[in-house]
């Protein structure tokens, strides 16, 4: 992506500035919260298809996230092929069985009880799309020389947030899944050693029978997640 010859600072006027009134700023903030509070993690997907173009636009949004040195250290692998989804499910369930059979420890398993999860992951096949997020630990200049990426976990985490918000904004539901370890994803998806898989996101429309755990509706109040100095 980068050429050594073009790495220099060149300031330009701020594009696309939203010059809202104070009242409009507050109204927009409240409207966005009202929309996002309706986002739910869903494990039950319908067989309704989702067009590839929708996934592309949501990933395009994720690609606008800020990143260390603007290196954009991420890659999103979108999968709709049923055979590949099955491979991912089988490998993920192998890891999950070890997790639930004692690898996680009693305290962690106890914490998961209200969520109602287990080692059975049918959503990895049922969802029309899986998006596997890879964090790129290093990249290459156009001449093949290797360079280091910076703040990779932080940058990729922000991009994942952008992606989840975009999927919800498009009327889709999603489930984040993090089997551990996840190196099998590099092999299944033929991704290079420089990339570390950090998340599988199942994407689609909810089943008419979809349910969410009651505990998922319990969110910390503002005074517990915000402190203000000044």
From TrEMBL:
Gene3D superfamilies named in the record: NADH Oxidase
Keyword Transferase: no
The Nitroreductase domain, residue ranges: 37-205
CDD domains for this protein: iodotyrosine_dehalogenase
Entry keywords, A to Z: Flavoprotein, FMN, Ligase, Oxidoreductase
Pfam family for this entry, one: Nitroreductase
Domain of life of the source: Bacteria
Coiled-coil stretches noted in the UniProt entry, renumbered to this chain: none
A Gene Ontology molecular function term of the record: oxidoreductase activity
Protein name, entry field: F420-0--gamma-glutamyl ligase
Record organism: Roseibium album
């Amino acid at each position: 992506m980068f050429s050594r010859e073009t790495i220099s600072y060149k300031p330009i006027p701020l594009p696309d500035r939203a010059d809202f009134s104070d009242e409009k700023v507050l109204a927009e903030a409240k409207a966005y919260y009202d929309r996002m509070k309706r986002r739910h993690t869903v494990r039950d997907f319908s067989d309704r298809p989702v067009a590839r173009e929708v996934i592309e636009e949501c990933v395009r949004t994720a690609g606008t996230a800020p990143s260390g040195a603007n290196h954009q250290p991420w890659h999103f692998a979108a999968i709709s092929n049923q055979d590949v989804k099955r491979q991912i499910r089988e490998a993920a369930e192998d890891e999950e069985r070890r997790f639930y059979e004692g690898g996680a420890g009693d305290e962690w398993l106890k914490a998961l009880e209200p969520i109602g999860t287990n080692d059975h992951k049918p959503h990895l096949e049922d969802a029309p799309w899986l998006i596997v997020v890879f964090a790129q630990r290093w990249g290459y200049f156009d001449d093949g020389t290797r360079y280091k990426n910076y703040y990779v976990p932080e940058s990729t985490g922000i991009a994942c947030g952008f992606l989840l918000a975009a999927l919800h904004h498009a009327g889709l539901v999603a489930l984040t899944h993090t089997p551990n370890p996840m190196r099998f994803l590099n092999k299944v998806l033929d991704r290079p050693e420089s990339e570390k898989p950090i998340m599988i996101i199942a994407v689609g429309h909810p089943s008419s029978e979809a349910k969410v755990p009651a505990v998922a509706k319990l969110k910390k109040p503002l005074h517990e997640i915000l402190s203000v100095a000044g």
